[in-house]
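User: Teach me something about this protein's shape.
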Amino acid sequence: MRIMFQTRTTIFSVPGGDTTQILKTQEYLAKQGVTVAVSTELTPDVSGFDVVHLFNLLRPQDVLVQARNARRYNKPTALSTIHGDYSEYERKARTLPVRLLYRVMSNAGIEYLKTAARAVVSGERHEGARAYLRQGHVRSQCEILSLSDVLLPNSQSEADRVQREFPEALSKPYVVVPNAVDVGIFDPERVSVPRSLEQYQGCVLCVARIEVRKNQLNLVRAMKGLPWQLVIVGTPAPNHRAYYERVRREAPSNVHFLGRVEHPQLAQFYKTARVHCLISWCESTGLSSLEAGVMGCRLVITDKGDTRDYFGDRAIYCEPDSAMSIRQAIRTAYETPLPTDLASHIRTNFNWDQTAHMTLEGYRLALAQHADLPVKP
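Assistant: First, the predicted structure itself:
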């Protein structure tokens, strides 16, 4: 089987969780004999592929043209929806102008304005952006769903959300394909703490891109007065430099910013830490939470998004807008025993072999589904 992955044009220049999902799925599908090509082009020649796999309903300006292109070639199409609800984040955590806009505009309207702004400020004026701006946010998303043969949400709660918001999704078959951790790299039995990290032994750790949604500002506020070190690994997201500078200004002396770390080396940081915090305003899972959990860290997270589908009662939950709630969650996590089944739960249910297997099931379903559809011009 030959698969074409098509995704946002900035997948490698502005990496995120979807970057890891794409590259790891490609790697582990290859182990099952599946050939995967990754493309950020909008209208590539996909005639030599059996299935086109699209990613990220939240950024329809790229996916819209890619979905139309797949249909022109009459190719079965699978869509990893990656669709979160960011409304609370927009209402509570964004800058004042955005919060004011949200009082008079819908979430779709806000997303439309953000895409228009990226077209002006960041130069994202490609064919997909133009088609999106002509058609609008929700209509673009609905068309993408209508052109997809099978949906591949990252959790059941995401599948439920997509079906609630889009009637077009109700008739689409879906396979839940969870995010995962590389249990070969993130194996506490095979990882040791290097001397360079011994100074951070037993620290509180946060591995994430530094941006408003990841909420590092409230995290550093919560660390004030706590007796432990906080190590922040990550770089500021584009257009979030001012936020990064504010986080640094407000950080107490027990907070350390270490910048970017290569993905395999993160295992050493997780092995060093006692607690990992990812107190985001919305997460499908938070890949770093999976990695930290399998490495033996206690987890502090929020339930904004789909995290309970992954961690259940094996993590400590807090409110992202309350430094007091975050501080208490860190104390609780640090001072209580590690859930005995956290690592085994992640290792068994959320590994890339399992993800590749479920993805392949989705492709077979897409092929069967597409065979029953009439060819559209």
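Now, about its shape. The CA atoms of residues 210 and 236 lie 4 Å apart. Residues 352-371 form the longest helix (20 residues). If you'd like, I can walk through any region in more detail.
User: That's plenty for now, thanks!
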